[in-house]
Structure formats: structure tokens, C-alpha cells
Amino acid sequence: MNRLYQKLLPYIEKNSAYDTALTLLSWDTETLAPPDAGALTAKAVGILSEEAYHVFVNDEVISLVEQLSTEKEIKTLSDTERSIVRHIKRTYDRLSHIPPEEYREYAEFCATAQQIYCHAKQTGNFSEYAPVLEKMIAYTKRFTAYRAKKGEKIYDLLLEEYEPGFTIKVLDPFFAHLKEELVPLIRKVCRHNDKIDKSYNYRSFPIGKQKKLCNFLAGYIGFDFNRGVISETEHPFTTGLHNHDVRITNHYYKNNLESAIFSVIHEGGHAIYEMGIADTLTQTPAAMITMGMHESQSRFYENLIGRSEAFWAPVYPKLQKMFGTTLSDVSLDQFIHGINKAEPSLIRTEADELTYSLHVMIRYELEKMIFNDECEVSELPKLWNQKYEEYLGVTPQNDTEGILQDIHWAMGSFGYFPSYALGTAIASQIYAFMEKKLPVEDLLRQGKLSEIREFLREHVHQYGSVYDANTLLVRMTGEEFNPDYYIDYLKEKYTRLYQL
Ligand code: ZN
Asked: Looking at the structure, do residues 217 and 128 belong to the same domain, yes or no?
């Protein structure tokens, strides 16, 4: 091993230890912590974050990273080591311009901002949240401006944090293409929507049985219960400490069966990715998967596989049996049409596969306006509602079902949303490639999900974030990111389902 690289190892381990502690605290805050824990825990988070900040932001680390980045040294590193050095450099560049004191204040502020947001959402009171959002935007602008080089757009730098390479230059034409193709398709689908009856989904499904079903589905797609747990939160999510401890959450509604089913398949997809990262990468910065790639795997499971007839053919009879007579009058065909019913709606997380990306596009357009200084925070609810009216033909009745529905901005996660749409598009590209190599449909019908998981592990999961999305796609499929697979997939699927 390169001697300079060897000197980095204790820092990498220390960084991972802080990361584990902070991730656990955040998991605990979301799942188990009592309601009044807030401010005091936030203080501990602030102090730990400041300590974590110094692990990579110090003279010895940057000197090692700079030496390792020279042509002579870089040649001696493996792909993984190179990627770790690159990650550390990126973290350094992102953080080193921020005074540590300010960074601690920010970490503390983030922890309380989320609580204020949650309260505002419950009461539908945007004005309670507005000052927090303003402060969060100001922090983000200031921190990003510290490191922006001349001519660099703030929003591009934010986007790069979630999926490197996918900047405004790539995303503008991507969303324009989606808008052009999907808006007319959605209109057509809506004209035929009375064909599909999914009232069965809102019957009464005991929560205990739903949990049993969801645990079964998680295991069925490849979630390893020796390396993972499932808990409950208002909004389902995934968090990973390392490849031997990955945690997901779910939310169960007595009168909505689909919600928990597709949440567990989605989060299960994220978890399978985290569990599949190579042992040599876990607990290093190269295990920090970028969000677009992460979403590609959750959506691969949720949509490409989880909403297909081939997936449900062997599973649906089990599901019917589990709920006694509740679904005995609902055929597999009706169920498949039901889980694929598309109609414009207000809530992103509940949106169907066809309209989902338009929800994302709305957030992308608003974020661009925010960071180009084209709008005030006070104007955001109105702009939000106007865009929903324009693209989806629906108008929120209040801010809880409008701008207050997502927690991301309260967490300082600006630039995150486009990953959801990108992920779905990448998933479609991977699926098209997989179909050339594996009899995917047959495997699904035979319940052989492990072969699909192994394929993804071999081509995607094991690499963590050693390669960026485009490099990974080229290595795997021979082609760079191409959104046409996604559009073709949606057109084909919905034309068939709705007999358009
Ligand atoms: Zn996700």
C-alpha cells in the first residue's frame, strides 16, 4: 500500500466513527427519542459535528491528499483508494472555507429547524416555518459562496453534492424532455381513468397483518434481517451505519394497503444497496452512495419490478390469503391495474409512477429560482400552487398539502430532489440492460429474486461510490446516462395498461 495513503487510514476510521455516532443519534431522534429531547440532543449533535469537521479539515490530511493527487502518486493507487482520496478532497473543499464555529451553529440550527418544520406542517402554518426556511437558505447560500469559483452557479454546486455531473446543463434538457413527453401522456391516461377501480385498496387491513406482509416482502426481495432492522416513522426512510447495519422504517395505514407495501419495497431497495457494498469499502468515504444512484436502486425495486405482473404472480395469492376474505373478489389483474393507476395528485410521496417526476420538476424549478435570487420565501407557497395547477392540474387547499409536505429544505437538503427523477430514469436504463443479460420476467415468476439482486450487486452495489453514475453506467451498459429508456418504458407500460 502507498505509504502516504496508509497515513490517511486512521483519519478515515475516525471519520467513520463520528459518522456512525451522528447517524445513530439522528436515527434515534426520528424513531424512539421522547418529544422533549430536541434542544439538548441538538446541542450534542452540534458538538459532535464540530469534532467530525476537524477530522478531514486539518493541515496533515490536506497535505496528504494533495501529495496523493499528484500524477506520480495517483498512479500507485487502486480505483477505490483514488475515490477515497477524491471524496476526502471534496469534503475538505466543501467544509474548509466555513469557520468551525459557524459550522457548529449550523449543525445545531439544522436539528431544531426540523422540529419547527414538523410543527408548522402539522398546523399548516407556513408563516411559522418561513423564518427558518429563510435562515436555511441564507446559510446554504453563504456556505456555498465561500467555495464557489468565479462564474460557478450556487445551485450547480448544490446539485453536484447529490449526483456529481448532473448540473443545470444536464437537468434542464432532461426535465424539458420529460415535460414534453409526459404531460400529454398523463392527459390521455386521465381520460381513461374510470376504467380502473382500486377501491379495494381502501378497505380495512389490520396493521399487524400488514407488518407481517411487509417483513415477508422485505425478505423476499433480499433484505437481510441479520444486517438490518425495520422500524416505524411518519415518513419511511433508510439509514446505514455500515454494510452490516442498515435500518429502514415504514408507516402503516389501516385503510391504505399499497402505501406500506411500496414503501417497504422502496426502502428495501435502498437497504439492499447498502448491504451489498464491498467489505473493503464500508466505513470509508467511498461507501457514501450518491443520491441519484441510491434512488435508482430503490425505484428499480419499487417500480420496475414491484409494480410488474410477473413479480406479483407468485406473491399475490399469498397476500390474498393473509387478509382472509378482504381481497378474495379482487383478481391479480385488477390488483396490477390498481397499483399502476395514474392520476395527478398533490402529495409527491403518494404519487404514482407516471406523474411522480412532475412533482420533482416543480421542486427543481423552485430551487433554481431560490438560488438564482428570483423569488422571496414569502412567495413560495403561491408559486408552488401555480406550478401544481400548470403541470398537474390540481391545486393544494392548504400549505400542508402544498409547500409544507417535504422535510428536505428544513434539513438544508437543497439540490436533492432531482435525484428522485434521475434515479427512476437510471433504473429504467439498468432494467433495459438487465433484460439483455437475464430472463428477468421468468425469474420474477419463479420467485428467484436473488439472481436479480446478485446481478445488481455485481454491477452496481459492491462499488459504493467508487465510480460516479455515468462511469458506472458506461462500465455496465456501455452507454452514458440516457433518459429515453425511461420515457420509452413509461409510454410502453401505460399504453398497454390503459389500452390507449
Ligand atoms: Zn428513496
From this structure: no
Q: How far apart are CA 476 and CA 468, in angstroms?
A: 12
Where is the domain boundary, 151, 181, 198?
151
Q: Alpha carbon 197 to chain centroid distance?
A: 30
How many Å lie between the centroid of ligand 1 and the Cα of residue 304?
14
The count of structural domains within the chain is 2
Give yes or no: residues 91 and 186 share one domain. no
Average pLDDT of span 153-182: 95
Average pLDDT estimate for 189-201 = 90
In this prediction, residue 168 carries a pLDDT of: 97
Q: Measured in angstroms, how far is the CA atom of residue 114 from the centroid of ligand 1? A: 19
Cα 362 to averaged position of ligand 1 atoms, centre (Å): 18
Task: For residues 123 and 221, state if they share a domain.
Answer: no
Global pTM value:
0.92
Where does a domain end: 151, 178, 201? 151
Domain assignment of residue 198, given as a range? 168-497
| Residues 6 or more apart whose Cβ sits within 8 Å of residue 150 | none
How far away, in angstroms, is 278 Cα from ligand 1 center?
21
Q: Pairing relation of β-strands 245-250 and 228-232? A: parallel
The alpha carbon of 73 and the centre of ligand 1 are apart by a number of angstroms equal to 37
pLDDT tens digits, 349-375:
889 999 999 999 999 999 999 999 999
Are residues 184 and 146 both part of a single domain?
Answer: no
Q: Which residues contact 128 (CB under 8 A, 6 or more apart)?
A: 116, 119, 120
Task: For residues 123 and 208, state if they share a domain.
Answer: no
What residues are annotated to the active site? Answer: 267
Contacts 24+ apart (CB under 8 A), 306-312: 306/221, 306/262, 306/265, 306/266, 307/262, 307/336, 307/339, 307/340, 307/353, 308/336, 308/441, 308/444, 309/333, 309/336, 310/440, 310/441, 310/442, 310/444, 310/445, 311/444, 312/336
CA–CA separation, 446 and 301 (whole Å): 16
Note the pLDDT of residue 39: 82
CA 62 to ligand 1 center in whole angstroms: 33
- 400 and 313 share a domain? yes
The percent of residues above 70 in pLDDT, for the chain, comes to 100
**422 and 364 within one domain:** yes
pLDDT of res. 103: 86
Query: Residue 130 CA to chain centroid, in angstroms?
Result: 25
Q: What is the CATH number of the domain that holds 331?
A: 1.10.1370.30
